[in-house]
Structure formats: C-alpha cells, structure tokens
Task: inverse folding
C-alpha cells in the first residue's frame, strides 16, 4: 500500500506546529518512563496554553467521586452542556491539558462545559477511564438537566462514544456527540493505519504502545467500552459529527464510525480535515487550517446542543 507523502500534504504552518510540538514532546516520547511522558506532555501543554476568554469562569468539583472542571460564562444562562473528555492515549493529560480548549468552547457556544479528569493507565487499567466517564455523565445529566453533548479528542473521543453506547440503555438523554480525531476501533492492520503508519505527531507504533499499556495484555476483543466500533448494534445512537485529520493513522476510525451510524439509520457527518495532523487542536491559534477546523467543531457542538441537524454543508470550509 502506498505511503503518504507529507511533503505535499502538510503546509508550512502545520510543519512549524509539528516542529514546535516535537521540541517539547519528542517523537520517541513513548520510550520515556510514564512519569517522563507526563512531564514533557505537561510542558508541551503549558507552551501552547492560551488565556481564558474574559467572561469565562471555571470551578473544580467532584462528580460522584470523579474530579471535573465546570466552565460557564458570567451572567449567561446556558441552554446546553458539553461533557468533554480529554485526549492523551489514556496515559497523559488531565484538567490542565485541555483547559483553554474547554474555556473557548464555553465562550463561543455559551454552553456549560464539564471537563472530566478520569483515571489513567498504567496505574488504572481499562475500564477505569470508561467507568469514571460514565459516572461523570450520570452526574452531569442529573445536575444540569440540559441537552448534553458528549465531546472529546483522540482517547477522549473513544470515551465519549463508549459512554453514548451505554447511555442508550439508560434514562439519561444524549443530545449528540462531537468526536475529534477519535480512536474507536481494534483493527490496526489496514487503511489509514497503514497509509499513515509513520505520520507526524502519532504513529501506529504509538497506538500499539497505548493499547498495550491500557490493558496490560487483557483480552478486550468485542468490548464496546474499549472499542466502540466493535459494537454489533449502532441503532439509537445520538446525532454525531466526527472530525478527523487527513495525516493521522486514526483517520478511518471516524469515517467508519459515521458510516456504521448511517447504515443503522442514524444521523452522522464525517469531516476529514485535509493536511492536518493528530493533536491539531493545539494549533487552532497558529495554523489557518486548524483555526478553521476548530470553528467547524464549535459550530457542530453549538448545533447539536440546540437540537439542530448538522449537514456537511453546515461545515464547509
């Protein structure tokens, strides 16, 4: 299978973002200790951190025993809430890593945003992260009594989808999902996993590392809470918008997931962001393509939270 030519796919702005990222978080970071990975990742997040929009306020709370950070705009009555699950391979990240992203989503939509600080591997193996996210979902549904949008990037996209698959069997209603370069499947031997096996920012070797450390070799085949794409039933899932990066081994996961929902009669829109790489949320203020994509992400969250059907035309470049 032909490999991607990143010299043609990726523009100068995105290469500058990649270079800056790798100056903090090197391509071989998985060879560091877990403590070392978290240290350089936290340093990376601090390097890209943006200040809160002026009207956004945040409060740390406990959601049924799970730490969360709740964002709201001053003097604003939110009409929906967003439950956000951060990325980081189930190993790194937390309330600080995506703090500014959540604050900006709150500011631009006017929705309440709840960021979830779930437990991570290897100290806490699967399904600990999923369990925490489900508890936080149940807490948010009780507390806010508003349309609830599940959102997340990378590992967080996996957790958002896993919670949505479980929520079908519960009284709590999910207004929709917005998944950002999500990891959703088990098969890493075909499609984008091969074409983009050595992509900048995330490689297939990285994916294998995160999968192994998350389970420590336990058999998770067919476990929907581990890989939502392994579900045999995609009916009754909420309206979904999945954003993928073209230059990312995870690209096909978003496309395949949306196709599965559509084939089951559900509403799903797949948006593949050309020339972008995994982790581009951090480039939303420095790379034009990432800035435009973040605006589309915010639009999708806003429309889903308002109960509006999202179409591809709504998210055109």
Result:
């Amino acid at each position: 299978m032909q490999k991607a030519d990143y010299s043609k796919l990726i523009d100068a702005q995105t290469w500058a973002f990649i270079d800056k990222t790798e100056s903090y978080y090197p391509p071989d970071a998985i060879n560091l200790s877990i403590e070392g990975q978290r240290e350089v990742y936290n340093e990376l997040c601090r390097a890209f951190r943006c200040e809160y929009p002026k009207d956004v306020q945040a409060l740390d709370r406990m959601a049924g025993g799970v730490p969360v950070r709740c964002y709201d705009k001053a003097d604003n009555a939110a009409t929906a809430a967003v439950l956000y699950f951060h990325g980081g391979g189930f190993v790194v990240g937390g309330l600080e890593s995506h703090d500014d992203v959540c604050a900006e989503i709150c500011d631009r939509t006017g929705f309440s945003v709840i960021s979830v600080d779930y437990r991570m591997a290897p100290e806490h193996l699967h399904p600990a992260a999923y369990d925490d996210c489900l508890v936080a979902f149940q807490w948010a549904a009780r507390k806010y009594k508003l349309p609830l949008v599940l959102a997340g990037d990378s590992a967080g996209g996996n957790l958002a989808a896993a919670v949505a698959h479980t929520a079908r069997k519960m009284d709590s209603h999910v207004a929709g999902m917005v998944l950002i370069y999500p990891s959703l499947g088990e098969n890493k031997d075909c499609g984008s996993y091969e074409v983009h096996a050595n992509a900048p920012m995330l490689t297939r070797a990285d994916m294998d590392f995160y999968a192994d450390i998350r389970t420590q070799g336990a058999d998770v085949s067919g476990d929907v809470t581990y890989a939502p794409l392994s579900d045999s039933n995609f009916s009754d899932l909420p309206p979904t918008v999945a954003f993928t990066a073209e230059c990312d081994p995870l690209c096909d996961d978003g496309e395949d997931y949306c196709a599965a929902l559509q084939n089951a009669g559900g509403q799903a829109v797949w948006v593949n962001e050309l020339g972008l790489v995994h982790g581009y949320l951090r480039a939303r203020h420095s790379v034009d393509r990432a800035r435009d994509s973040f605006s589309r992400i915010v639009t999708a969250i806003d429309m889903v939270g308002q109960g509006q059907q999202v179409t591809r035309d709504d998210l055109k470049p």
In short: The longest strand covers residues 268-277.
